[in-house]
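Researcher: Quick test of sequence recovery. Tokens follow.
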């Protein structure tokens, strides 16, 4: 009896696997057969080793390196439900990031597309994308960020004052700090109070929905994210209405877009005089885009930087010397000056080395908008093409001993496209200046005030699209 049951289970397993293989053969693009690589198991492909190694200390570098050794710089695979081509190297960077306009577009997962909305900067291409970048560039320029400098400086001091005498989870503190900065910058939200709490609660649900399964069913992360997005948009609708009617005036990012670049409600039709105007939907989609893009990456970068400094005392001491000198040059008070924050050369190198060593975004996902060729392989329109950034940042010819944390690598200019900490080309991070400003100010006050030690040794990484320490990097601080 038991043998019969076992035989039936074996036959059923063979049948199911056969169906999976047939389905995979049916759905695999025939033109992709010429690309070297393996598609792994039916349906799931190579997702399991990809996810497993993604959470390891070295991230997907091991996954990529094994396949590059076997297949070369260009290979195909099936991961996370997508047939995709991974490529690496400066030539691939040039093609995918700075190549002909319109050759590729950003390739968000379905959940991200739905949450951010169709008019998001991350979903537009060609002239529409250029126009959006131009309209939001001014408030995010170095000059445009001056008005937020004092808030960021004061918030850094207030945040660090609360670190003494308790266990600090750096990732959580960095998350709260960056979200308060962005909330104030975009719509003048105070760092505490009911509105701030609603804002943070909704944002957390939105952020967690990006890596969720695409089931819009009550109780799922995706459903909760969509509902939180709708509540966030209601907050923005109310604020936009007040700004337009003159009931409220603030010197923030939203105000600059409403007053200079916003169409009146209902003005959805574009005419010749509307080239520099945004609809309410465009305003909301792109404010949310800046919130999402500016929060997770800066949070991760700040956390990794503090972790790397704790693991590399000579780097910390040299960095502290730079900031102690800035502190000594101040006439009075704890606050930084604008000129001082723009004169931190070693800090800039430490930030760059953090972005290289951690490679917070391990790959840049694109979709071929037209046929093109790279390394002798023909890439077809519609294919998912991913630039493997982690291998570029671990190229030993450019970065000797790539696992070592060494800011002096940036003492001399690097070859173009060998460092992609903030991306490059038309999709370069628009918030690059804000991220550097936040991190530089926070690190100044941290190293001038505290030493710290980790409470546990754990190099595991969260299985999220943006690489963050799994244990949130718990520390205790000691005053200098």
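Model:
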């Amino acid at each position: 009896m038991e043998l019969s049951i076992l035989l039936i289970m074996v036959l059923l397993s063979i049948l199911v696997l056969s169906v999976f293989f047939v389905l995979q053969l049916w759905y695999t693009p025939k033109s992709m057969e010429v690309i070297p690589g393996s598609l792994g198991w039916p349906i799931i492909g190579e997702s399991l080793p990809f996810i497993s190694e993604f959470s390891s200390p070295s991230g997907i570098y091991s996954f990529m390196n094994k396949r590059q050794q076997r297949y070369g710089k260009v290979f195909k695979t099936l991961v996370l439900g997508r047939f995709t081509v991974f490529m690496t190297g400066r030539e691939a960077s040039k093609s995918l990031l700075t190549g002909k306009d319109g050759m590729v577009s950003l390739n968000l997962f379905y959940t991200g597309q739905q949450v951010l909305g169709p008019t998001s900067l991350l979903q537009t291409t060609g002239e529409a994308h250029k126009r959006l970048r131009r309209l939001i560039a001014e408030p995010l320029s170095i000059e445009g960020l001056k008005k937020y400098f004092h808030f960021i400086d004061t918030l850094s001091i207030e945040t660090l004052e609360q670190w003494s005498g308790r266990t600090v989870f750096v990732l959580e503190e960095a998350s709260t700090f960056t979200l308060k900065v962005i909330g104030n910058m975009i719509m003048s939200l105070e760092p505490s109070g009911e509105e701030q709490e609603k804002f943070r609660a909704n944002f957390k649900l939105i952020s967690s929905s990006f890596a969720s399964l695409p089931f819009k069913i009550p109780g799922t992360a995706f459903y909760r994210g969509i509902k939180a997005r709708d509540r966030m948009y209601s907050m923005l609708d109310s604020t936009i209405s007040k700004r337009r009617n003159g009931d409220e005036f603030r010197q923030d990012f939203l105000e600059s877009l409403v007053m200079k670049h916003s169409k009146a409600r209902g003005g959805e039709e574009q005419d010749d005089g509307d080239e520099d105007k945004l609809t309410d939907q465009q305003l909301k989609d792109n404010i949310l885009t800046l919130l999402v893009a500016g929060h997770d990456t800066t949070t991760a970068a700040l956390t990794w930087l503090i972790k790397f400094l704790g693991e590399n005392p000579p780097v910390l001491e040299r960095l502290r010397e730079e900031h102690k000198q800035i502190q000594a040059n101040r006439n009075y008070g704890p606050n930084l000056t604008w000129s001082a924050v723009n004169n931190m050369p070693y800090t800039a190198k430490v930030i760059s080395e953090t972005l290289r060593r951690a490679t917070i975004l391990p790959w840049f996902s694109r979709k071929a908008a037209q046929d093109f060729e790279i390394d002798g392989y023909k890439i077809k329109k519609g294919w998912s093409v991913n630039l493997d950034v982690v291998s570029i940042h671990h190229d030993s010819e450019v970065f000797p001993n790539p696992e070592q944390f060494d800011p002096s690598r940036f003492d001399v200019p690097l070859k173009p496209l060998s460092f992609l900490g903030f991306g490059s080309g038309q999709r370069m991070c628009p918030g690059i200046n804000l991220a550097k400003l936040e991190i530089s100010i926070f690190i100044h006050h941290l190293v001038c005030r505290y030493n710290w030690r980790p409470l546990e040794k754990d190099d595991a990484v969260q299985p999220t699209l943006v690489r963050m320490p799994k244990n949130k990097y718990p520390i205790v601080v000691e005053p200098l």
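Confidence is low (pLDDT under 50) at residues 13-26, 267-272.
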